[in-house]
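anyone else get weird line breaks when pasting these?? whatever heres mine. first is seq + tokens for prot A
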Amino acid sequence: MASCLNAWGLGHGIDDLALVATELVTNSVAHTETAQVGVSLSRVGDSTVRLTVTDTSRELPPSSPATAGEGEVHGRGLLLVAALTSRWGAERLITGKRVWAELDITSKSPEPHSRPSP
């Protein structure tokens, strides 16, 4: 993924993309009995990339991510995906499903550092 982003001049977006990819692949492995997971990345605009994860389960993730309860260590994956992407979704395929997420990777300027007042 880093090679693609670097080639497209969007290398500064690798952290968010890697987190979204990790969450989607983890969901695919943890919530299905799939024997195969596919991952692809495509550029769909000047600064937008689409990450696609496919598996052999036809069960779709919830369209609205649930909120994890206090103290729970699971249940935040799709919330992270929703927060880090401009849009995401899922669709059934004949052989399973496709979950996709689009990230708008614009050039981010560093936040100005301010000194505390004396």
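and prot B, same format (seq, then tokens)
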Amino acid sequence: MQALDYDIISVICDSIEERHSLLCLALTSKTFLEPALDNLWREITTFYPLLCVLPEAGEFNGDKTLIEPITERSWKRLFYYTCRVRSLKGDLCPVVPTVYRTFSVLEKPLFPYIKSISLGNELFCLRTIQESFLSNTLQSVSLISSLDADILNYRYDLADSDDFGPAVSFIAEKVPHLRELVMIKGKCKELPLLLKKLQNLQSLRLYLYSRDFMGSSLLQTVHSLPNLDELGISTIDYRLSPGVALAHLEIPTMRTTPGFLHLTKLDIATSALGLSELLDNMPENQLSLLVFRVSIPPSWIPTADQHCESFGDIPTVFSKFVVKQRVSLETLRVGDRFYSPANVLDLEEFYREDWRSAMRIILDGLSGLTSFRYDLPLRLTDDLVEVMAKSWPNIVELELNVHNSDPVSVESLSHFARHCSFLDRLCVPLKVDDISLDSLERVENFCRPLVLGIAQVEESRTRKIKDTFERVLPWVELEIIPDMKPGSAYFELLVG
């Protein structure tokens, strides 16, 4: 029998999700031993398994610890496993902190081939952790606030928020070749200066407290990073109530020197004017992904002045990025879910023409879209759904999380069946009151597995709807959604 190729064996191991099954495979077959161990140790979230392979380890007050000095033979045994670790994330508990000091005396990193670390900021700042983990193979670091975010949301004193400065400073000094940096829920006053030392960054994602630390100096620095491919910036404002996380980022006027030369993915929470400023400072037809988040505080009803100040001229800005990025843009996300449904009606009425104009601009100018998600108020109609299907023949994912809109008819699905041959996922509100055999037969050629969520209605009506679908579209699976408004449905097309 011909031996299996190593790559094929690795694919088989990757396809086994149950860790116990993978371990059994490693222990029962020499052929699968090494690939299976590579898979099992690729990512760890605690030091516990490391100590389990050491005979010198024991327990103290319920935590794993070292009760004897580690012998040279045990070190070799440990490195047999740690050289397979590529990703480290979590709080690394439950182990006694003195264990970290033991590992820090090593002359070489404990994880010599590690590529990604995701830790709490306080834990990462421990010198013993830094000396044990940081390797010249490290490519990605994610720092997460060690403080309670729910408590922080109620405080206005920024001195209480987690300071990422010491951790980023150490990274800039020891890992200047870092490619990805993620910072979640904290602050870092020195960030603009420290980023200048990380000139190899390809991905920078910041989700930090207080827009006070996201000023012009930061954006000027980010603007000049030569290899940056992905940028995501959102800020958290203490003045907003808990649950409303995103605050608009104020974009200063940039310098005219070229920047963002390699940026292809942009995820930004800002006003239309801020987005316009960013687009003015990057090359045309370069973005493949744009996420434009719009956050609205609860019970906020805008005046005309606030409309211009906070959002700017939405259709004009949409026209700008359609013109500048129409060739390259494949994925577009507009809006966000960080606003209160209570004021959606007011917003829809106030911005009605803006939303409609913006949607028409997107439909007319971005025929190459493969993924589109819309999370803002919009009046859906069957005619608009038909235009969408015709405008985006290459669309793969389409999600319309529209609010305060009447659901569209089931017959509207026929437009996607006719024009969108690559569609794998579709979410759109549908009417269920008028579902009939005739309406379903019109979309019968839409022969793909799908899940259709419908509102909680009387049991007899639910059974009738299910029978109707099963008779005409047997590949449809119905799901009852209790909190959905009766008379509408949520249609989701899944990959077959």
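btw re prot B: The CA atoms of residues 210 and 237 lie 5 Å apart. The longest strand covers residues 203-209.
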